[in-house]
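lol forgot to send this yesterday, sorry. struct tokens for the thing we talked abt
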């Protein structure tokens, strides 16, 4: 047993400032507004407040606004990025979390403006540079989106 008394202890809630410290994304691509719970090396529960003011709703679709599925998956990936950065102690290191693969994506319910999209992501496998995650996005108790994805921790590209 390790001597760290905080190991596995839940942290949160984390506000958007702490989210931005973990992720390089900024408006309009920052898709995590708050972290409700984060258990290092295990899982995260985060929130994306879906507003009618999101730029993508202008064209997707006029008269029937629906959050694009790829952005739902991106929101899950960003939540996973926060989980990875916090679990691996990478905050402030400049390291980035890059998508490598996305598997088994299923869209179950449309995500419309005015909802809180709950992002639940857990580690399936964790290594120093490669992590595999399982993610689910919920509207209340209803499953909206689910997928598995793999990401790589790496240095940002040189300018």
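and heres what i got for the seq, position by position
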């Amino acid at each position: 047993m390790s001597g760290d008394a905080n190991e596995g202890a839940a942290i949160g809630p984390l506000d958007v400032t702490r989210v931005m410290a973990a992720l390089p994304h900024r408006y309009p691509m920052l898709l995590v507004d708050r972290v409700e719970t984060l258990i290092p090396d295990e899982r995260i529960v985060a929130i994306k407040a879906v507003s009618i003011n999101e730029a993508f709703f202008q064209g997707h679709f006029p008269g029937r606004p629906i959050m694009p599925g790829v952005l739902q998956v991106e929101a899950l990936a960003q939540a996973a990025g926060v989980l990875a950065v916090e679990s691996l102690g990478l905050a402030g290191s400049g390291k980035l979390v890059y998508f490598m693969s996305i598997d088994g994506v299923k869209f179950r319910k449309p995500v419309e403006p005015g909802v809180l999209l709950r992002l639940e992501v857990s580690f399936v496998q964790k290594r120093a540079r490669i992590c595999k995650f399982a993610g689910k996005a919920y509207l209340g108790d209803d499953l909206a989106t689910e997928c598995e994805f793999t990401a790589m921790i790496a240095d940002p590209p040189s300018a």
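Helices lie at 16-22, 69-87. anyway ping me if u want another try
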